[in-house]
Amino acid sequence: MKGFRDFLLRGNIVELAVAFIMAAAFTAVVTATVQMIMDGSASLAVCGTSRRTIPAVSRSAPSSRRS
């Protein structure tokens, strides 16, 4: 067991784990940024305006109570 612990703490596995976590976080940031840019560009091309400037429309459900 001591040999395995020394192997883990030697640094290679720890560095690999840190690199993997950093790569996953970087991938998430890049994906979100590209998606935001592409959504904005697509809505600008199709609608002629940014989707953020279009107000949201919500309709309430018809009431079941009669007056």
Describe the fold and architecture.
- It contains two helices and no strands.
- The protein has 67 residues and is mostly helical.
- It is elongated.
- The N and C termini lie far apart (78 Å).
- The mean pLDDT is 75.
State the main characteristics.
67 residues; mainly alpha; 2 helices; elongated
Task: Give a short overview.
With 67 residues, this protein is mainly α. It contains 2 helices and no strands. The protein has helices spanning 2-9, 12-47.
Topology at a glance:
Layout: H1 2-9, H2 12-47
Structural class: mainly alpha
- Number of helix segments? 2
Based on CA atoms alone, the radius of gyration comes out at 25 Å
Overall mean confidence score, pLDDT: 75
